[in-house]
Amino acid sequence: MNYNNIDFVTYCIGNLSRRLNMTASEVYRRLKQSGILMGYIVPSYDVLSTFGKEYLMEDLTEYLKEKGVL
Length: 70
Description:
Elements: H1 3-20, H2 24-34, H3 36-41, H4 45-48, H5 53-66
């Protein structure tokens, strides 16, 4: 991962933690264990980083639900 990826992952985790009312470490753990972090967020950085905040959070929340993480 490069700096942009790390910055984006941090942005996603922070915003998801506020949206889901969880700690950032809990969101990170769920993203990592489910494979969403390295299987979706990091490889899709180029596309996901173009989304607005609300759309991005909705997309990630729905994906977490589909994967049974939420």
